[in-house]
Design a protein that fits this description.
globular; 13 helices; 49% helix; two-stranded antiparallel sheet; Alpha-Beta Plaits
Length: 289
């Protein structure tokens, strides 16, 4: 996913962040295979770094956000975009977060699955029916909810969700049960890293994962700490952005999954995804027009 950026000025971001992390991010972004990137510390570091590469190009192209939000790891990128967190400080925390979540996943093995066709209350009911360690982890969009927990708990909840009328249940290629109590072993290391990081006021409103509330000032450490073991309230976050008057959503970074969630949650909103130099420039030109 980094290959299109190697010969651009924005690629310099990768070298600088590699020095902060003490790891070769360029290798992850250009040469790593799928199994390597499925390791959560690698996935998080690579995704954060590339998102900041894209952000650098977007800023250079004249794109200015009126409000920001980020899904899970993306909340760190959103805070950088809003000026509340420096990119090097963000890289240090993301590195510590990823390493801690690897340990938590080894201590409390688990998995995640996407449930389609049910609302969050119905999916929460399926988790309760399962009678095991499984919870709603992401409320992504209408009819798209992600569950996470132990392998046994998720399997039981999948069956319960089908009994409740889910149209489809899909396992996700992840290394752990993120945004659930099973991540608790990662809490102390994350909190230590957050405490050592400098945060400031945001230049634009930020919608937080844990409560979908709007903030320009806030205790970002507490919000990011709570996010680790709490569900991502993304559907509500998108609705909140729409309530603020947002009519155009631009997804910066690899993939276009979030743009699809916007389509389901905020019908009629303009959607753009930008993951390559050409797509960033095209989005900038379209919005200027």
């Amino acid at each position: 996913m980094g290959a299109p950026w190697v010969d651009t000025p924005s690629w310099n971001v990768v070298g600088r962040l590699s020095e902060v992390l003490g790891r070769d991010l360029a290798k992850l972004l250009v040469d790593a295979d799928a199994p390597t990137l499925q390791e959560t510390n690698n996935a998080q570091a690579a995704t954060f770094a590339l998102s900041l590469v894209v952000l650098d190009r977007a800023r250079g192209a004249g794109l200015v956000a009126g409000a920001v939000a980020g899904h899970s790891l993306g909340e760190y990128t959103a805070l950088v975009a809003a000026g509340a967190l420096a990119d090097d400080a963000g890289m240090a925390v993301v590195g510590a977060r990823g390493d801690a979540m690897v340990v938590a996943s080894q201590t409390n093995p688990g998995t995640m699955a996407a449930v389609l066709g049910l609302g969050p209350d119905q999916v929460a009911g399926a988790c309760a029916d399962a009678g095991g360690d499984v919870w709603v982890a992401n409320d992504n969009a209408p009819g798209q909810v992600v569950i996470a927990g132990t392998n046994t708990g998720v399997a039981a909840a999948e069956a319960a969700a089908r009994d409740r009328g889910a149209t489809r249940v899909m396992g996700l290629p992840v290394a752990g049960a993120f945004h659930t109590p099973l991540m608790a072993p990662a809490q102390a290391p994350l909190d230590t890293s957050l405490a050592a990081s400098a945060f400031g006021d945001a230049s634009v409103p930020v919608v937080a994962n844990v409560d979908a509330e709007v903030r320009s000032q806030g205790d970002w450490r507490a919000l990011l700490s709570a996010q680790l073991c709490s569900p991502v309230r993304w559907r509500e976050s998108l609705t909140r952005l729409a309530d603020l008057g947002v009519t155009t959503f631009v997804e910066l970074g690899p993939g276009d999954a979030l743009s699809g969630m916007v389509k389901r949650t905020v019908p009629g909103a303009a959607r753009h995804s930008a993951a390559t130099p050409e797509s960033v420039d095209a989005v900038a030109a379209a919005l200027k027009a």
